[in-house]
Design a protein that fits this description.
- The complex is a heterodimer.
- By secondary structure, chain A is α/β, with parallel strands linked by helices.
- In chain A, α3 crosses α4 and α8 crosses α11.
- Chain A is elongated and about 80 Å long.
- In chain B, about 70% of the residues lie in helices and about 0% in strands.
- Chain B starts with 11 loop residues before the first helix and ends with a helix.
- Chain B contains eleven helices and no strands.
- The chains are: A alpha/beta, B mainly alpha.
- Chains A and B meet through α2 and α3 of A and α1 and α5 of B.
Amino acid sequence: MSDLPLSLRHVVKRFPGTPPVTAVAGIDLDVTHGEILGLLGPNGAGKSTTIGIITTRVRPTEGAVTVFGVDAVADPATVKGTLGVVQQANTLDRRLTLWENLYYHCRYFGLGRGAARRRSDELLDRFRLADRRDALPPQISGGMAQRLQIARAVAHDPALLLLDEPTAGLDPQSRIALWELVTELRADGMTVLVSTHYMEEADALCDRVAIIDHGRILVVDTPDALKRDHGDGVVIDVGLTAPADAAVRAAVADVPGVRVVDDLPATGHDGTTQAGLRLSAASTEGTVGTLVAAVTPHATLRDLRVHETTLESVFIALTGRDLRE
Amino acid sequence: MSDRPAPTTPGVLPVLHGLALRDLRVLRRDWAEFLTRTLMQPLLFIFVFAFVFPRIGQTVGAGVAGDAGFATVLVPGLVAIAVLFQGITAIALPLSTELGDTREIEDRVMAPVHVNVVAVEKVLFAATQAIVAGLVVLPILLLVPDTPVRLGAGDPLLALLVIPGAALLSGAIGLALGVTVAPRQIGLMFSVVILPLTFLGAVYYPWAALDAIPWLRTLVLVNPLVYVSEGLRAVLTPDVPTMSPWVIVTVLYGYTGVLLAYALRGFARRTLS
């Protein structure tokens, strides 16, 4: 049996219903000591369900989950004792002050009165919340609430910290401040699993990234290796005034070094409707001009966008879709 | 942080203690609300029926009370309401919110124990609150009436069984309602559940007095408050006739067991998937 911080083997979760929904479709994942592993995927990819399974709150339909060698299904109490969890929603206790949120959390984990007091004081200082210690959760900003949620999650000194979309809805400054906090916690020896649909977050924060889509992990590696192996070259979106027909496709496919990935999603990032093709290419050098010349006889070109190599282009290369769809 | 010992599982009792401390903190913050919701209804009832009515010559309850007097019949019934109400409101109202929109229960669900422990703590804490509510209400009920209240001392063993049984039953009802009722249905819960329980709970008359309406006498047997009222009557006013004390005790604990089993399943359904 492995004593890794976290090990998932063939984990499946089907929610009953008509039709049943398979949220997690067979995941294998190992998280090693002291790393920050990112679970990167679009909304609905199965990230929250996976985290729910690790926290023992979602029972897997199939497969095995062990946390430091302890079976999460058979012995949830012990597993919960080693986990720190930050849920996607603000779940702070609204009836308790910020300090009390930490203090009583420590008591739930069996810390004595003195130890819980000291720990709560220390954490409020460390997470820069000391001046609001007597405020109630509804009275503080979103960034502060999220810092408090992380402080609370680590208050009992868990060996594995789970963060479910920790920066969703935060402003850019709060987001960067949170990355710094998480990096500090890792430096203290904590292992971290963080889910996110922000590729910048995965890139900046994580030692390794697991790309997840439709309940499956497509690939796990360091951000650099992912970009090197899967994102080599660029993604080119060719915007047309009408959906691409067979003639356009054939013409584009004939351009050397270009591969047609998919049709453009009908709705773009900014919510406008669009049509055209998504291509991958080794580089833009010599390609763009040829491409324009190839398309022009068959269709009206509206625009042409080039995505440099990022985790997002890795995701596009792997799935043919982008993260925000 | 690395100089602190690795986390260990503390066991059930320290966690239960921590959960109860949290509830106690919240209760201390809301003590005025606790007193108000405990006292208001019994106080108004006893005032109108056992103070105002005798003074204005309005007679009520003369037939049912026999020699004991209406106030004597009313006092255990109103203590029963205080106990039952307290148990229900102490859990059902906050839990409905915590399980609903705010998901505040999450942090406690992640405590290193089986989730049932979190639910059982709620019941134990509510039961304690229910006993406190009964103790607060009783002396005040004795002060208000214009007619004498003849308290007696029932069987002490019966008291030791009835009082915790009534308190646990009220907590179990609270948990069952809390896991079932959505926050926006709380108002409806009062009309559909709480009011019928109160008015048909052998509060204002002993259950035996329903001999005159046999169908109702049978129907109200499903009402848990009947056993709380009758039980407290057997303990506080042994001169007033009640149903068999051992039937009362058996049903109090049996009802508690059934409701708890239902409520724990519901709690797990709401917190796990």
